[in-house]
Design a protein that fits this description.
The two termini are 28 Å apart. With 404 residues, the protein is an alpha+beta fold. It has a six-stranded mixed barrel. Strands 11-12 form a two-stranded antiparallel ribbon. The protein has two domains: 2-49 and 254-401, no CATH class; 63-239, no CATH class. The protein has helices at residues 2-10, 14-54, 77-85, 149-155, 190-195, 201-208, 227-238, 247-250, 252-290, 292-300, 305-341, 349-354, 367-393, 397-401, and strands spanning 57-61, 90-104, 109-117, 132-135, 144-148, 162-168, 174-185, 196-200, 216-221, 242-246, 343-344, 360-361.
Amino acid sequence: MLFTIAWRNVWRNRRRSQIVMISIIVGVVAVMFNDGLSVGMVRQMLDNQIGSHVSHIQIHAKGFNDNRVIQNYVHKPELVERTLEGTPGVKDWSKRVITFGLLSSAMNSSGGLIVGVDERREPEVTSIKASLTKGSYLSGKPHEVVIGQRLANRLKVGIGDKVVGMASALNGDVGSDLFRVVGIFETVSSEFDKTYMFTSLASAQNMLELEGNVVEYAIVIDDIAQVEAVTAELRRKLGADYEVLSYIDLLPLLVAQVEMYGEMMYIIYMIIGLAMVFGIINTMLMSVFERIQEFGVLMAIGMKNSYVFRMVMLEALVLALLGTGIGLAMGSVLLLILNAVGINLSMFTEGLTSFGVGAIIYPRLTIDSVMSVVIIIPATALLGSIYPALKATRLQPVSAIRYV
């Protein structure tokens, strides 16, 4: 019965109730959009790093991550490969040689990372092949190289031009080789495109005199949510002689940034909620003062203070639930549409690519965002209605009936 009375009371002053509901709807949509945009941007940065080179898990010789020299190559690679083939959750993997070196053309030179990859398996692990804008991917022939567009611009080379790669070989001498550019890629990270060049695994091994040795295994798994479990299983199987690192270990700053944005959203929800509290207090106080005589009559005929209190609280809850429900539906539809089509921010391309995001942002609708809206908005509405409800219960029936 109280809910029915509260529902009718809400619509006795339609304009005021509609204004309050619209403010709640706008607040919910705005905070969901901000949450989705922030989460989408940061997760794109993380996904781009994983997809371009890092992968879900990397395996090296123990100590390689602290001292990234080719002398720390992986011993017993056949053991690693057998382990990868026999571990549930591992989707695909590729072996690599990676070292810092100098790239030179007839016009210029630049420092960068020379990465030798298994040209058959690497496209299943990273997105470099899919990011090609000119030429073709590595075919497995010797002396082929694929470089980033910004590195190509710096070296002033194009498809078919030659570049010289130089790096420290296994014995400490300078290893060098002449490569021909067969492909140019462009990712969403300008720093990545300035730095990386990819050649076949055999070419890199010959240049660095590695004699078939491998420096790194890059692994992708079926479900990224299971990355810690798969990493732990690989560590258990391989033992202490190998370094098994997930993207969480390899990209700690980006992972921390994802978590930081999640914490920041709670602060934004608190600010929105605080603004709502004052709005609800003002609205419900107006409602109480307009109905002082009505409350006096109800108390005079025997309605308990607790019922009056609950009735006012229910009126605020009805407004909050209606506003939250409509706002949640509108915000969810908006985010799902934007997730499909993206937000084109090409005018900020330079800034966004420097962060590794890309010119098109795809906001994301998350369960955390939905649950935060469903819990926080009604809760703040109830909090804001406590004072007006207490004000109504403290009315004296005789004085309230005579109130003009």
